[in-house]
Amino acid sequence: MQIIAFGAHPDDCEFCAGGTAAKWVAAGHRVRFVALTNGAAGHHVEPGPGLARRRRAEAEEAGRRAGVDALVLDVPDGALFATLELRERVIRLVREWRADLVLGHRPNDYHPDHRQAAALVQDAAYLVTVPGICRDTPPLGRNPIFMYFQDRFTKPTPFSPDVVVDVDDVMEKKVAMLDAHVSQVYEFLAWQDGLLPEVPAEAEARRAWLRRRLETPLAPAVREALARRYGPARAAAVRHAEAFEICEYGRQPTADELAALFPA
């Protein structure tokens, strides 16, 4: 399969789907993570062009660690808008990747870049099959399945998991990917959460700190979806999971197709 995921910033895809991507790659599928902005605003000390270069290198290193293709667009961080130009860029990226599955943010989210990224992917969902749009790039003969990353927001509607993946067995791979995003997980996000003084200097100690940070309770809806997919006994033991919701604008999968798309 060909899977493409769109995040607003470098590291969004890794946080939301890094474990599932590692499983896809291990099974022989091709995965691409696209950051729609350059991440140049995401730091408390060094925002600007130097940070953009650093974040691109971090995204590429994260991709290398899991066999994921990484692409960072040169769009200013914090200034993403769902323009016609960027919509056509997303359409072309989906077509060029010959995507079977497209992942992205939901439209209700705390960050304006995330909301605009969602609009860009949703607006491309039907048009990737329309020959008269972006005529320089052949349209897809079959509409991909479009799905949302999990989030915690409830208004106007809460996230509703259609499929959940147990990623306990690939958490070291996910940690390795996120560990590559040094400017974020060990600097900016730690600073935002008031935890910067406790970040260890030594590499393995930092990874252990990151592992603990990723130990968060699973939402009740995710627990229920885990039980439906894996059975109550296995679901009860799962500590880390990634969940996805079907977008109504793409092709609608059957239950069997959905189960086959996502690794167990």
Number of strands: 7
Strand order of the largest sheet: 3-2-1-4-5-7-6
**What is the strand content?**
5-15%
User: How would the global form be characterised?
Assistant: globular
**N-to-C terminal Cα separation, in Å?**
15 Å
Radius of gyration: 18 Å
Q: Total number of helical segments?
A: 10
Q: Which structural category fits the helices and strands?
A: alpha/beta
Residues in helices, as a percent range: 40-55%
Uncertain ranges: none
Summarize the helix and strand pattern as letters: EHEHEHEHEEHHHHHEH
Mean pLDDT, as a whole number?
97
Biggest sheet statistics: 7 strands, mixed
Describe this protein's structure:
Helix 2 packs antiparallel against helix 5, helix 3 packs across helix 4 (112-127) and helix 5 packs across helix 7. The model has no long low-confidence stretch (mean pLDDT 97). With 264 residues, the chain is of the alpha/beta class. 44% of the residues lie in helices and 13% in strands. The protein is globular and about 55 Å long.
Q: What are the SSEs and their pairings?
A:
Elements: E1 2-7, H1 12-26, E2 30-35, H2 49-66, E3 69-72, H3 84-96, E4 101-104, H4 112-127, E5 145-149, E6 163-166, H5 171-179, H6 182-192, H7 203-213, H8 220-230, H9 232-237, E7 241-246, H10 255-261
Helix pairs in contact: 1-5, 2-5, 3-4, 5-7
Summarize this structure briefly.
With 264 residues, this protein is α/β, with parallel strands linked by helices. The chain has helices at residues 12-26, 49-66, 84-96, 112-127, 171-179, 182-192, 203-213, 220-230, 232-237, 255-261; strands at residues 2-7, 30-35, 69-72, 101-104, 145-149, 163-166, 241-246. The protein has a 7-stranded mixed beta sheet with strand order 3-2-1-4-5-7-6, sandwiched between helices.
